[in-house]
Every structure is written in C-alpha cells, then in structure tokens.
Specification:
The structure is a homodimer of 261-residue chains.
Chain A (H helix, E strand, L loop, with lengths): L9 H9 L18 H15 L6 H7 L4 H4 L6 H12 L13 H18 L15 H14 L6 H31 L3 H12 L3 H4 L1 H8 L12 H30 L1
Helix pairs in contact in A: 1-5, 2-3, 2-5, 6-7, 6-8, 8-12
Chain A binds a DNA duplex (30 and 30 nucleotides) through helix 4.
Chain lengths: 261, 261
DNA sequence: AACGATAGCTTATGGCATAAGGAGTTCGCA
DNA sequence: TGCGAACTCCTTATGCCATAAGCTATCGTT
C-alpha cells in the first residue's frame, strides 16, 4: 500500500531515462565508481523479480551488490526514481520491431501474448502505474510496436486510442489476476477448495444471494462433459475469450469503415 | 510500494466481511467498546479518500477517531484486514439492483458509468488488487448486477467470463489513468506543456523514433478543425471509444449466436 | 606533495506496523 | 456488596523502512 501514483521527480527520472548510454566519458578525480546506474537498476529488477514489490528495499538492492543502502544514493536520487528506471528497463525485453504478419489480427495476438508473458515474468511491473508522469523509451517502444500493427487497419486515431487503451488495460489487468492466483496457489495448495469451503462456512446463502455469479463460474463449454479444469486452463480460456471479444469489436470497426468508404 | 497482493489472512477477513450486522448482542464484562469495526472502516475510507493510499496509516485512522493506533487492534487484526474491509465496504455505494433498461447495451453502459464514477471518487480502491483471495458481499453484488444485464444476451458463460473481465479491467485501468492524470494536473498546472517540454529537451529525436505514437496523439476527429481539447475531454472521448469497441465485440458475439441458432 | 572532488561508509531522524504488557473499567456472580 | 474475569485502551519497545548529514578514504590534477 503506497504511492504507486506519485513517483519521483519526473524531470529527474526522465533525464536519467533518456540519457545516451556513454554519457559520462570524462575522467574525474576521486575513487573509481564501483557501481553504475545500470548495475543498480539491474539489481533492483532481480530483487523485485524474486521478492516482489514488497521485498524491494534499498537495502535489499544494495546487498545484492555488496554495498550498503546509502551507496546507491550516489547514483540514483531515491527509490522512486529507481523504480521508474526499473520499470522502463524491464520493458527493454520487449518492443523490438517484429516481422510482419499476415493481417492485423495475428499481429495483435502475438503482441498481446508477448506482453502477457512479460508481465508474468515481472509481475511487479503491474504495480507501477501505467499512466505515470514519466515516460521511458522502452515503454514507448512497446506502444510503437503495437501501433505498427494497428495503423494497418486504417482506423482513425480516435478509435485506435480506445483500442490501445482496452488492449493494454486488459492485458495488464488479466496478467495481474493470473499472477496473483498463481502466487496464492503456490503459497497454499488446494487453494480453490480451501477458498470455496471458507465461503460455504461463512456465507451459506451465497448461492441464493448471487445466483448469476454461481452460474457464471459453474457453466462450462456446452460440449464439455463437465471436466474439472485446472485454474490455469480456466483462466487462459477466459483470457482468450475476452480478447476475442475485443478484437471482434475492432474488426467490426474495420468493416464498418470499409463500407463507409 | 508494497504488498498489494497478499492482504491479510483471508479466513479472518472473510469472516469479518460476511458477519451479520447485529452479531454481538450479549453483554460482556469490561468497559463498553468506544469504537466498532464499522466506525474504523468508515474512518479508514475517509482517510484514504482524502490522503490517498500513501496517507493511510493506522495512526491516521486512529487519530480521526481520537484514539491511538494501538486501540484499533482491539477491533481489527491488522492493517491488511482493515484494507480488505474498506475495499468491500466502499463497494456498498454501488451494486443495488437497477431498473431494467431497454436492451443489454444501455444497461452495460450505465453500469460502466456508475463504476467509473465510483473509482474516481475512491481512487485508492484501484490500488487494491482486483483478484484477491478475499471476497466480500458488496464487491460480489457489483458483479451480480452486471451479470443481471449480461445474461440477457443469451451468451454462454465462457464468453461472458471474458466479457466481464474485459469490462472490469478496462474500467479499472482507465479510471486509474484518469485519476492519476487529474492528480498530476492538480499538483502542477500546465502539466501537459511541462511534460512535453521536458520530453523535447531530453529526447529531441522523439518524433523520429516514435512516429506512430506522435501520430496517435496528434490526429483528432476528421471533422474537427484542430481544436485543442482539454485533457479531460480527450480522455473521456478515448474512454468512450474503447468501450464502444468492446461492446461492439459483444454485439458481434450476440449476432453470431443468433445466426447459429 | 598537496588539493579538491568523489564513493561509499557510519550514524541519526522520523516514519511505519505491531508485539508486549500494564492500568483502568465494567460485567456476572458469590 | 465486593471480587475476579473479561475487556478497552494506553505506553513502551522492536525492527523495519527511506533518507539526511557528515566523515573518511581514494585518486586525478596541479
């Protein structure tokens, strides 16, 4: 629980984010720097990957580098700015230009799949707000990659803005659900059973109060013989279903535009 | 930055969440309780509303009630559980059964609008994960309300699960964007200009590196004479555009089903 | 050789959640 | 009427956290 919103001074973060790689060439007096911003960002990402956001402390990062927490402040103004840098750096795993695919729909699908995998590798990224004041090059590249595909639809920018928003929010939101479910399931096995047992005990009238919710959870594909799916498969199937709906919406817009022309 | 994921002991939170109102009837020895769980939850919501998640501390909540932080621990096991209760209680503002509307689309639209307003009134709710282990009656009621509308489409549960996910994630994600932009704009006037100036200075080659992103931001509705919109209107328009895409996707599914029948 | 800039240290401050234990309050029951 | 048990709320202490301040050792420059 904390300020996901107001990160560090945007101006400071931004200049660090967009600084060319070999900016500091001139030799200076004093001891050689034993660390670098890059190293610290790297270490921060490792810590966040393994210990999650809650475990990300300046000390933890420093310890991974064999320093005390205060050593980091020589390189980085503070934790908030470090997080800004980590966030953007992590996105460097993605966002390269991609081979053209046949049509926008497969293109979007593979972009979505890649982004989802990325979020599941680095769930802490999802705790950093999507709409921050700071903006980094790698994050921007991810958007640009998506636009590469989306602009081929010929849809107007107004509509595309909405499409971009729905795709990003959908992937982010769903990835968070998956990540947290996985965490809960890992922490405690037989998690679903535990949870529904809890609910039965504490709210025996649940089925009467929320019949549609129960129905939503129970009903499976008409064809299925009632097989119990693992929560992974269930979630994946739901993810795909929702994505299909969104993309069908895009397709409708594309078709409508074709007619209008 | 902290554990939005793992809240308190789910079992404890759940029993508090689903406890009937007048549970404690029997008189007990000891001084009369000066507080109650309800009062504390109420106070917590006030604190979070005004001071946001970052300002939500046990002390702040207790001070609002004229107590020390430790007094709260008599009623509530800890901060994590308090947050679970706050989250669900806040949702009580919503979720009542609603008058039937003509068709599912207006129904969903008004549900979305109401939920969006709610999130903007209580942005801290968005910092609490949507997919938590605990589940409260009021949050559940919000889902049930949506399902009331969605099941009239006759779509199978598989698809509806996806629709529910895309709607929830879209509204949550977008509301967060709006809330944070509003916060930034309030903190610092002329925020957009400041921000783009910063970008120009630090990344003068932005337009060449990310041409499509620039195009996405610049192009406005074909009809418009290039009027500068306020960010509020711009965001609202984008929100509506994305929502339209999603609902068009639902409509496509409904139509396809009608044909298949 | 001496100077001044710098890296990374120790220490201190003020915030946080919350464990531990103590003091006063009010009930049921003798 | 009075005692003990149960209860509320407090003070205090512990151990986290970020980070301000200042110190020391290092090293390029003069």
């Amino acid at each position: 629980m904390s300020n996901l919103a107001g990160q560090g001074d945007p101006a400071v973060s931004m200049s660090l984010l967009w600084a060319p790689a070999g900016d500091r060439a001139t030799a200076t007096p004093g001891p050689k720097p034993g660390l670098s911003v890059d190293l610290i960002v790297e270490a921060g990402i490792s810590v966040a990957d393994t210990a999650s956001m809650a475990g990300l402390s300046m000390r933890a990062v420093a310890e991974r580098l064999g320093r005390t927490s205060m050593a980091l402040y020589t390189y980085v103004p503070g934790k908030a700015e470090l997080l800004d840098l980590m966030y953007d750096r992590a996105h460097a795993e993605l966002g390269g230009p991609r081979p053209p695919e046949d049509g926008w729909r497969p293109g979007v699908l593979s972009w979505v799949a890649e982004l989802k995998e990325f979020y599941l590798r680095h769930p802490w990224v999802l705790q950093v707000s999507y709409a921050r004041a700071v903006l980094g090059p790698n994050e921007q590249a991810v958007l640009e990659t998506l636009l590469d595909v989306l602009f081929t639809t010929g849809l107007p920018a107004d509509v595309l803005r909405g499409v971009v928003g729905s795709l990003f929010h959908y992937v982010r939101g769903f990835a968070q659900t998956i990540a947290e479910t996985a965490l809960a399931a890992a922490t405690q096995e037989d998690w679903w059973r535990e949870r529904s047992g809890m609910l039965d005990e504490v709210a025996p009238d649940f089925a009467e109060r929320f019949p549609l919710s129960v129905r939503l959870g129970r009903e499976t594909a008409a064809g299925g013989g009632g097989r119990e799916w693992s929560w992974e498969r269930q979630l994946d199937a739901t993810f795909d279903a929702g994505l299909t709906v969104i993309l069908d919406g895009v397709e409708a817009a594309v078709r409508a535009q074709g007619v209008r022309r």
